[in-house]
Amino acid sequence: EAKQRGDQRVHAFDHAMEQALEGRLRLETALRQAIDGDQLRLYLQPQVDHRGRLLGAEGLLRWQHPERGLVLPGEFIPLAEETGLILGLGQWVIEEACRYLVGWSRCPQLSRLRLSININVQQLQHPHFVDGVAAALASHGAAAGRLTLELTESLLIDEIDTAAVQLAALRRHGLQLALDDFGTGYSALAYLQRLPLDILKIDRAFVQRLGDQPETLAITRTILQLAEALSLKVVAEGIETPEQHLALEGLGCRIFQGYLFGRPQPREAFEALAKGKAAGYALEASEGRNSS
Ligand code: C2E
Ligand code: MG
Ligand code: MG
Ligand code: MG
């Protein structure tokens, strides 16, 4: 009888495994179809300066699934990374970014906006990545100088020097480079020392602890000083409250991103914000402070 119970357990386990594998396979197939089937969206989250002026946006990937609705990257990027589908997704993001930039360049109210997109390490490590980005920009007629690539601290230390060569080439093409989620990885300082960068993005984990942890304030101040010493711009992300905004401003931060200034939104909504409400938006964001 004990043996029988054991067998049942093994069967239950096999069944769960099978279902998990099947689920992954279904997701993988669906994700492949998403790329060809016009189900991907590049949402835009506003980035503003210290006067509340709109500087541009970060593009964030969404999957508009026919049945499941809007799916967030956390639910499909990990599998895309495992299966190599990330390269196809990444290519789509680059092309879409080019289309946005070209559209903006034709409209006086939008032509100064910058766009920042997220790049996966696998993309960066691909031997033709730099040529691919340059080719996409050229074929669409988009200005490299308006595009920023964000990368996270997920490179291994011994991959840094190879990455640095690729990044230097991208910069020669006129792109700007940002280190995303700064402060959350293991090797933050090694990255700063060895990669050619333009921008540091302070992770929202720091921003959200600013109010209740004095040491977080000290660390954030140090990050800003370090950035200044290295001539890097700083973007603080994940700002949700006016208190967080004020604290960061007090520390000398000049570029902000977070729900307080706008959620990630479809292109049309972002463009309407940039066009129609640009003036009101600036007033609203600098409310209660001197408009220096
Ligand atoms: P990330 O690049 O650090 O993007 C910022 C994330 O924080 C976004 O989540 C954004 O929606 C969220 N966020 C922004 N402001 C706030 C705020 O005030 N409060 C809170 N709680 N969250 C805020 P999202 O869109 O779910 O993206 C998650 C991550 O997925 C991104 O983190 C990025 O690493 C990755 N990702 C997104 N799009 C792409 C893409 O096109 N390619 C690649 N390779 N990765 C992407
Ligand atoms: Mg990012
Ligand atoms: Mg980030
Ligand atoms: Mg992140």
User: How many E-type strands?
Assistant: 9
Overall shape: it is globular
- Spatial separation of the terminal alpha carbons: 81 Å
Which strand order do you get reading across the main beta sheet?
1-2-4-5-6-7-8-9
- Structural class computed from helices and strand pairing: alpha/beta
How large is the share of residues in beta strands? 15-25%
Name the bound molecules: ligand C2E, magnesium ion
Oligomer: single chain
Rg from Cα = 21 Å
Largest sheet: 8 strands, mixed, barrel
Number of helices: 12
Q: Which whole number gives the mean pLDDT? A: 89
> What percentage of residues falls in helices of 4 or more residues?
40-55%
Low-confidence stretches: 278-292
Protein name: GGDEF-domain containing protein
GO molecular function: cyclic-guanylate-specific phosphodiesterase activity
Keywords: Membrane, Transmembrane, Transmembrane helix
Describe the 3D structure:
The chain is an alpha/beta fold and 292 residues long. Helices cover 50% and strands 19% of the residues. It is built from 12 helices and 9 strands. Helix 3 (86-105) packs parallel to helix 5 (129-140) and helix 5 packs parallel to helix 6. The longest helix is centred in the N-terminal third of the chain and has 35 residues, at 2-36. The chain is globular, with a radius of gyration of 21 Å. The N and C termini lie far apart (81 Å). Bound molecules: ligand C2E and magnesium ion (3 copies). Residues 180-181 line the site of one magnesium ion. Ligand C2E binds next to strand 2, helix 3, strand 4 and strand 6.
